[in-house]
Amino acid sequence: MQLSSIPKIKHTDSNNFFLLAGPCAIESEDMALRIAERVVKITDDLAIPYVFKGSFKKANRSRIDSFTGIGDEKALEILKKVSDTFDVPTITDIHEVSDAAKAAQYVDVLQIPAFLVRQTDLVVAAAKTGKVVNLKKGQFMSPESMKHAVKKVHDSGNENAWITDRGTMFGYQDMIVDFRGIPTMKQFAPTVLDVTHSLQQPNQSSGVTGGRPDMIETIARAGVVNNVDGLFIETHFDPANAKSDGANMLHLDHLERLLSNLVKIRKTISSL
């Protein structure tokens, strides 16, 4: 697919990787606009094609008392306001078949969570909206097996699919990125590396997922060197107090330096 086919996407002729970035979950209008404003300025300065990311609800939680959202319609309206305010496309994840048509009214890209990427009805419902479908590779799946998820989208009459690698389970409480999978998945669809979720440490006894944000630049650099089409980075101005996935998010204050370094690497790789 052509990145330029996404409404409001910019800098598509810059030869940069594209970026999916924002908070894990929409916590309030103020926080979403605050994060979007900062990331839009950084990506405009660096000529990075940008899609604002925010989950309108979180269905996959360790504990019943974990934060799930502020209300579906309220969060989706905030995503639309981000798009209208900053003239950028948006992406959110869906969890049920009924979410597809609902979320498609507000966002430009629908994301299938890793744990649900084998759910045929969900993938087909997303594909039939005509939106770009971002398929997260299951933590339990091989890179090769993702061709079947992509084929479900294509067979539903939608050629616009991405694959996002968010790591593979390594034991019970760690994730690992197998960079051999990137060229494999790029054969099937444009491939994104989810830098922050790849550094999660799930299944903690506390019921709160841990993470290794200190390794974000290491993983991101390796992704760019290995020619990923895009990067996925969750970021927040106060990760310690974020309502979801704070343990593995990048502090917003560190995003500009990280992306500046990655753009330099991209330019070097492109010249080889």
UniProtKB/TrEMBL annotation:
Which family does the record claim for this protein? Belongs to the KdsA family.
Predominant localisation class? cytoplasm
Q: What region holds the DAHP synthetase I/KDSA domain?
A: 8-268
Q: What Gene3D superfamilies does the entry give?
A: Aldolase class I
Q: Per its UniProt record, what Pfam families does this chain match?
A: DAHP_synth_1 (PF00793)
Which key words tag this protein in UniProt?
Cytoplasm, Transferase
Q: Where in the cell is it found?
A: Cytoplasm
Is Acetylation one of the keywords?
no
Q: Which GO terms describe its cellular component?
A: cytoplasm
The keyword Transferase appears for this protein = yes
Give the enzyme class.
transferase
User: Pathway membership of this protein?
Assistant: Carbohydrate biosynthesis; 3-deoxy-D-manno-octulosonate biosynthesis; 3-deoxy-D-manno-octulosonate from D-ribulose 5-phosphate: step 2/3; Bacterial outer membrane biogenesis; lipopolysaccharide biosynthesis
Organism of origin: Kordia algicida OT-1
Looking up PANTHER family in the UniProt record yields: PHOSPHO-2-DEHYDRO-3-DEOXYHEPTONATE ALDOLASE
Q: One GO biological process from the UniProt record?
A: lipopolysaccharide biosynthetic process
Q: Which reaction does it catalyse?
A: D-arabinose 5-phosphate + phosphoenolpyruvate + H2O = 3-deoxy-alpha-D-manno-2-octulosonate-8-phosphate + phosphate
Please report the name of this protein according to its UniProt entry.
3-deoxy-8-phosphooctulonate synthase
Q: GO terms for molecular function, please?
A: 3-deoxy-8-phosphooctulonate synthase activity
Kindly give the InterPro entries that the UniProt entry links to this protein. Answer: Aldolase_TIM (IPR013785), DAHP1/KDSA (IPR006218), KDO8P_synthase (IPR006269)
Enzyme Commission (EC) number: 2.5.1.55
